[in-house]
Amino acid sequence: MAKVVLTNLTKRWGDFVGVDNQSLEIHDKEFLVLLGPSGCGKTTTMRMIAGLEDPTAGEIRIGDRVVNDALPKDRDIAMVFQNYGLYPHMTIYDNIAYPLKVRGTPKPEIEPRVQKAAEQVELTEFLHRKPKALSGGQRQRVALARAIVRHPQVFLMDEPLSNLDAKLRVSMRAELKHLSHMLQVTTVYVTHDQIEAMTLADRVAVMKNGRIQQLGTPDEIYNDPANLFVAGFIGSPAMNLIEGRIENGVFVTQGGFAVTKVEAPNRSGLVLGVRPEDLTIVEPGTGDFDVPVYAFENTGESVQITGQFNRQRVIAKGDRYLKREIEEMTGMSVDQKHLYLFDQSSGERIRN
Ligand SMILES: Nc1ncnc2c1ncn2[C@@H]1O[C@H](COP(=O)(O)OP(=O)(O)OP(=O)(O)O)[C@@H](O)[C@H]1O
Ligand SMILES: [Mg+2]
After folding, report:
1. Do 102 and 137 belong together in one domain?
2. Average model confidence (pLDDT) for the chain?
3. Same domain, yes or no: 75 and 108
């Protein structure tokens, strides 16, 4: 078991900065998720930890050892990739046994370890098959088994569920969660799927342009976002972000639309953040503001109502039995305890 410590880690190609002077301590046995949009530097960070990419600057420690100069095979890590990377001509048994064989594990030790790993991912009955005779989810479990059979100090997983269909992803997510709880191995997991990040992580590092924007528990990044980027990135539907100013205790949009009371001094150049679930749908005239309904969507489990005021749209989530017609007026009421204010130009959170 080991912690992973990145210090001032940087990766540049010419003038382009892929990972920008990042420091991050991943605790022993922690499940840490790197989350961010495409191109933000997640895979590059992961590949530097794995030793597949040389950092331009900075230090990587695994356990007590600086591994910058260690070969990938000497870093005691196991990787799981998006495309599984299975050997098509080998049976599932041989695929799982492969990393042990190449490391010269004594033969009598291999069989029980493969059996145990196969059991942990529920593949025992498929060991004699070839990968092409398995479903996508089963193949992904082979890739996981091949990683866990090694008993590495660290797992590195790069979008391991992204080739699976939506339903399988959800069930594999739960399996991964269970497995990581049982194994207790330090894991760095890369995804651009925020639900995966929220559900799997002990802590999430939200990245943008090669830099960590916020590092925190799922609860912290959801309920206490550090800036506009994190606020807008986490949550589906996304947090409503309304531009405007505070005038005598009221948040007013540029078009003069009064949204809600805010206990803060007068100030302009602001963005008000409200999550859709913190906007309650009420009868017109009884909430903080009234808007015409732009769209009404029923997701089965809840309804989403999009309202529109001076070219700005707001989404509220409501009880599944609620009904509204398009163009009908609806009231919306803001939960005062869950409002966020940001500086419009810097994106920084304003706390009062
Ligand atoms: N070998 C390379 N040479 C130049 N630029 C590169 C190289 N590899 C990656 N990059 C750039 O570095 C940035 C970060 O890439 P990276 O693969 O880490 O992104 P990512 O966060 O994993 O994105 P995705 O979610 O799309 O996988 C991207 O803009 C990418 O184009
Ligand atoms: Mg990537």
Report:
1. yes
2. 94
3. yes
What are the residue ranges of helices labelled H in 41-188?
42-50, 92-102, 107-120, 136-148, 166-183
Query: Where does the pLDDT of residue 329 fall: very low under 50, low under 70, confident under 90, or very high at 90 and above?
Result: very high
- Same domain? For 53 and 9 the reply is yes
Give the burial string for 171-210 (b: 16+ CB within 10 Å, else e): ebbebbeebbeeeebbbbbbbbbbebbbebbebbbbbbeb
Residue pLDDT, tens place only, 70-90: 999 899 999 998 777 899 999
Q: Which ligand is nearest to the CA of 39?
A: 1
Q: Can you tell me which atom of ligand 1 is nearest the CA of 42?
A: 21
Between vectors from CA 97 to CA 93 and to CA 99, what angle results, nearest 5°?
145
> Domain check: are 165 and 124 in the same one?
yes
**Residues 192 and 275 placed together within one structural domain of the fold:** no
Query: What is the distance between the alpha carbons of residues 260 and 250, in angstroms, rounded to a whole number?
Result: 6
pLDDT class of 1 with cuts at 50, 70, 90: low
**Which residues line the pocket of ligand 1, CB cutoff 6 A?**
13, 16, 18, 36, 38-44, 192
Tell me what pLDDT residue 175 has.
Answer: 86
Ligand nearest to the CA of 44: 1
Structural domain range at position 195: 4-233
68, 55 contact by CB (below 8 A): yes
Share of the chain above pLDDT 90, in %: 85
226 and 279 part of one domain? no
Average pLDDT over residues 86-107: 94
Centre of ligand 2 from the C-alpha of residue 151, in Å: 25
Q: How many domains does the chain have?
A: 2
